[in-house]
Fold this protein.
Amino acid sequence: MSDDQDRQGEMPDPHAYPPPVPASAPVDPSWAPPSGPLPAAPSYPWADYARPRPPHDARSSHSSGHHTKGRRFGVGPALLVLLLGLGGGFGGSALYDGLADNEAAGPYAGGLEDVETVELPPVRIGGVQAVAKELLPSTVQIVAEFEGQSGGATGSGFVLDKQGHVITNNHVVASAAQDGGTIQVVDFGGTTYDAELVGRSAVYDLAVLLVPGATDLPPAALGRSEKLRVGDGVVAFGSPLGLTSTVTAGIVSALRRPVTTGSPVDDSSYINAVQTDAAINPGNSGGPLVNLRGQVVGVNSAIATNGGASGEAGNIGVGFAIPVEQVRITADQILKTGEARYPVIGAQVRTQGETIGSGARISEVNSDTPAQAAGLEAGDVVIEVDGLRVTDGIGLIVNIRSHQPGEQLEFTYLRDGEQRTTTIELGSETG
């Protein structure tokens, strides 16, 4: 009897989670990527931290003394810090600065429309085992040069399309990109390929690689994080601590969580994250977060952990993934032009030293910018954007970057205790 016949004869478990989908249920092939802005969220005021480090199984004197650095917020007796899956920290908050060192223009004028991606869910009746079977062949390990050390940085990624493009985090390959270092991709079977950097976005912590010799690797199916609900089951894939082809499972523990990631060199990555308790550790960065239909809903990017002087931090059940909707937008831009763009208002906002919930205080307004044209001034406190509450500076940055250049947004702000409104058309920067 064939596998299909077996599945048709199975009786679905009425107590299964998530609820089983009949094998005969129709699959909508007409789904298209969502349009419009991602929703904003309350702020998430956690701190910056340390540096990238070599892989777990190949550490040298470069990594033997790595320590957690930067300010940390106490929660009871524990110190919580945000960790990137590879390493890295973050700091300030310019809304108008960009990264202009992106690589050559992309080869696909139509972006994602010119490459062969997959969207139909590969799993009909959700289960971790079935999801793992489908997604592991599409998950890869990234090995990149770090500060001149070959293989000094490791992370994860997933195959985007049948042309051999791979998605990963910018912070996994940033050092190699800046120094012209080597980047390699290791597939599920252990084969190593040389990879080329097509483009990257420090702002959204995403990078697109091209692996010319890996066009036979199966692309991962792309889903929608907007369909997620708190409590939904998810599965994280990657190479934590250098342990390739690792699968961990959990739930969505929060949605639209503003989180800051980055590195000491580039501190401008702010994401409106999917929060999960699936175990994510250093090395998981860039790997896919997948729903129980086998579709990518996010890119694992950061974790929260108890910080210690030893620096040997691990997962405590709070991880963060970049929503797949942003991955679609950024990958599309990179494939078209080799670079990514993000929206700006032309102002700087305070991200430290302000009371949570009091709004986002503008510290500086640049000349000849959308913010200046709209009448914003230093000292103004933004409390809403398009009717959505803004609790602090990070929340404002994430809100703005959830939209696209050219959109017009209504800002509500306080000046000398008086509430005012203004409309700002978002500008654009590369980064």
